[in-house]
Amino acid sequence: MFRRSTPEPEVPAPTDKVDGKGRPTPTRKEAEAAARARAKVPRTRKEQMAAQRSARGDTAAKMRQAMKTGDDRYLPTRDRGPVRRFIRDYVDSRFSFIELMVPLLVVSMILGYSGNQTAMNLGNTVLFTTILVIIFDIVMLRVRLRRELARRFPGESTKGATAYAAMRSLQMKFLRLPKAQVKIGEKLPETYR
């Protein structure tokens, strides 16, 4: 008549946090072998040099990968921190006249070597106009960047920030390291902490 109901098992509530380390736990034997390998001190100079070379190679590989992905932990000191990351994103998100510099310099060089006086004068005009526009672009970048840094990072040291931005803007976008993480015209996040 009366049915006895069994209690349903409790299901844990979903969380936003992802648990786990992304790899299986090593066995005791593997953990002890790894500990012995770390504790083993190189005896000869040759072994010491090989260990140092291996460590340098690992560090260099991590730094190369960080230059591609923008991982702050392995970047060089000059590129590390939220202020520098914002500067890189700010420079990379705006169109810079420097992107057109190389083709314009090639055109001015071709015109300069054409032998025709009118074409040579036009080549010189293109060259000097390009240089003036680039200087104006860098000055405007510095003014706007200082204003934006004061708004986003009040009280933080921004020493060398505008020089860092100017040097980054003078490079072609595909040659910049660390690689650009934003596209031209992309809206930047409000916080970089």
Can you characterise this structure?
It is built from six helices and no strands. It is an all-alpha fold and 193 residues long. The longest helix has 36 residues, at 117-152. The radius of gyration is 28 Å and the shape is elongated. The termini are far apart.
- End-to-end distance, in Å? 65 Å
- Coarse shape: elongated
Number of helices: 6
Write down how many β-strands occur, each being a DSSP E stretch of 2 or more residues: 0
Features:
193 residues; mainly alpha; 55% helix
Task: Describe what is shown at a glance.
By secondary structure, this protein is mostly helical. The chain is built from six helices and no strands.
Describe how the helices and strands are arranged.
Layout: H1 28-39, H2 45-69, H3 82-93, H4 101-112, H5 117-152, H6 161-169
Helix pairs in contact: 3-6, 4-5, 5-6
